[in-house]
Design brief:
This is DUF4139 domain-containing protein. Helices cover 5% and strands 48% of the residues. It has a 20-stranded mixed beta sheet that branches. A five-stranded antiparallel beta sheet has the order 10-9-8-7-11, with no helix packed on it. Strands 1-4-12-6 form a four-stranded mixed beta sheet, with no helix packed on it.
Length: 528
């Protein structure tokens, strides 16, 4: 009996097949999971990521083959890549580490012929000759010519190399490849899905407050935009774009896993061209009179023709249609915003898409101050202003608000003016929304102890404090005053509510007046 052992095809035996350009593409962007609500998106160092799905067509020969997907994102996390639609599945995955560059071109041509063109110092004419590359591009470049071995650009004359073609395996775009097997071969539509580093997004809000609103009734409009950043060097044209809001639990370091391919330059260590003995050339500027001569002068006759009476102007064009708004969907506990039309996600670019357009939202202008025992002092302190509303339909909202930056404008006789810029955290439907506006110039508070506390028994004695609120506005205001931390003090003498671990007392202050109030505190009794 004769036994024949058939070994699997080696990598050299596999046919290389290039997949088509993406026929359909979807990009889902996730925020930086470690970015705090008060931190802004960093265009120079994005730490979010995206899920990219590309649909391509590939024609496979019978047997094993290698499929090259050219033009994937440079921040691709190769270990996350999944390819579906192949009859034989995936045998092996590879991420090409080198991009087409001067250094890679030289390294790929090592031992092969190139053409070198340089200027003949005797005739001044460019001459081209054949040469063989004898060194790699990690220092000086040495060629073998008819005259012997020569170092490129070390003669002091301009020189350039011409290559017959691009070495096999080099590409100007990042390449991801897989090995697969098909018994019969054929044409298939496959989907490549992978995570990519170098994306991020945030929400940007614009709140326009009506002119002249008082603290009891404030009406404002709220527009919101998804600001999406792609820091990769690749564009994704005509893509289905989505953004996911909420904090996603991640344990992988996508930045380290991405490891973008390098495009190494060609470094030649020879003297520079020219000479430094003559110094820098003196810049030559055109005179002002010469610039005037180049300008187009409109004659008086032309001016008269432009202002001559004629037919009435055409009617104004109709207003443009409203901008498309991203639709919100549920994704478990997260929120998915789907852009309603296909769009281009440009390389190293920002894109904004509207996702919220609400008008006539009911709000209230609050003032806030802190008079906790350890903060009590005699000097007046400006109260902090705050624009509050409730995220429900009764107040004109009722949609999840992802974290981001909000710019607040107020109407005036000369148009809308910027009054504050602050940050918003994530707000779910039904929550109270608070937008800080900064310190007030019209409302101040004063807090002080009623007696010396150096001999006080904090757990046995009630200690008194008093406060004053000074309102210089021509209208009444409502102020919330934090009087104690819930875990640190017992409070009596004031009606308080608990919020965010602090006890707040709400005080109404008439216009152009001062309101005084008092309360007592002591440390809570701790049982042994």
């Amino acid at each position: 009996m004769t036994m024949v052992c058939v070994s699997p095809a080696t990598a050299q035996d596999r046919a290389t097949v290039d997949a088509s350009e993406p026929e359909d593409i979807a990009v889902t962007v996730y925020r930086d999971p470690n970015r705090a609500p008060w931190q802004q998106l960093n265009p120079r160092w994005p730490r979010g990521f995206a899920m990219i799905s590309e649909t391509r067509t590939v024609t496979l020969p019978p047997g094993e083959s290698r499929i090259r997907f050219e033009g994937v994102a440079e921040g691709m996390v190769a270990v996350s890549a999944i390819v579906t639609g192949l009859p034989g599945g995936t045998i092996e995955k590879n991420r090409n580490a080198d991009l087409l560059s001067p250094a890679a071109l030289v390294d790929g041509t090592l031992g092969n012929r190139v053409q070198i063109t340089r200027t003949n110092p005797a005739t001044g004419e460019a001459e081209t000759s054949d040469a063989i590359v004898r060194t790699r591009a990690d220092g000086g470049l040495v060629l073998q010519t008819e005259q012997g071995f020569e170092a490129v650009r070390c003669s002091g004359l301009p020189e350039r190399l011409t290559f017959d073609g691009v070495p096999e395996g080099l590409s100007a775009e990042p390449v991801f490849s897989i090995d697969t097997r098909s018994d019969t071969g054929g044409t298939y539509q496959v989907t490549l899905s992978y995570l990519s580093w170098g994306f991020d997004w945030q929400a940007n809000y614009v709140a326009s407050v009506d002119e002249g609103g008082d603290s009891e009734d404030v009406r404002f409009d709220l527009n919101a935009w998804l600001t999406i950043l792609n820091d990769n060097g690749q564009s994704f044209e005509n893509a289905e774009l989505m953004a996911v809001a909420g904090r996603l639990n991640t344990v992988s370091d996508f930045r380290r896993l991405a490891d973008p391919p390098d495009a190494e330059p060609l470094r030649l260590t020879c003297w520079p061209r020219g000479s430094t003995a003559a110094g820098s050339p003196v810049p030559v500027y055109e005179s002002y009179e010469e610039e005037l001569r180049e300008q187009i002068v409109v004659t008086a006759r032309r001016v008269e023709q432009d202002f001559a009476p004629g037919a009435p102007p055409p009617p104004p064009p109709p207003p443009p249609p409203p901008a498309p708004v991203a639709a919100q969907e549920d994704l478990g506990d997260l929120k998915l915003y789907r852009i309603p039309m296909r769009t281009d996600v440009n390389a190293q670019g920002l894109k904004q898409v509207a996702f919220l357009l609400e008008e006539d939202i009911e709000g209230e202008l609050f003032y806030e101050a802190s008079c906790t025992p350890w903060e009590s002092r005699g000097a007046p302190v400006p109260a902090q202003m705050r624009l509050d509303t409730v995220n429900d339909e009764d107040h004109g909202l009722g949609a999840p608000l992802p974290a981001g930056q909000v710019a607040i404008f107020e109407g005036s006789s000369v148009g809308d003016l910027l009054v504050a810029e602050t940050n918003l955290r994530d707000y779910a439907v039904g929550q109270d929304v608070e937008m800080p506006l900064g310190p007030s110039s019209q409302v101040f508070t004063t807090c002080r102890w009623l007696r010396d506390q150096t001999t006080n028994d904090w757990q046995q004695d009630w200690s008194g404090l008093n406060g004053e609120v000074h309102n210089a506005n021509p209208h009444p205001v409502t102020i919330e005053i934090a009087v104690a931390m819930v875990a640190e003090w017992d409070v009596r003498g004031l009606d308080t509510v608990v919020r965010d671990g602090r006890r707040f007392a709400r005080v109404e202050v008439p216009a152009n007046s001062t309101h005084a109030f008092a309360w007592e505190v002591k440390l809570p009794h701790i049982e042994d």
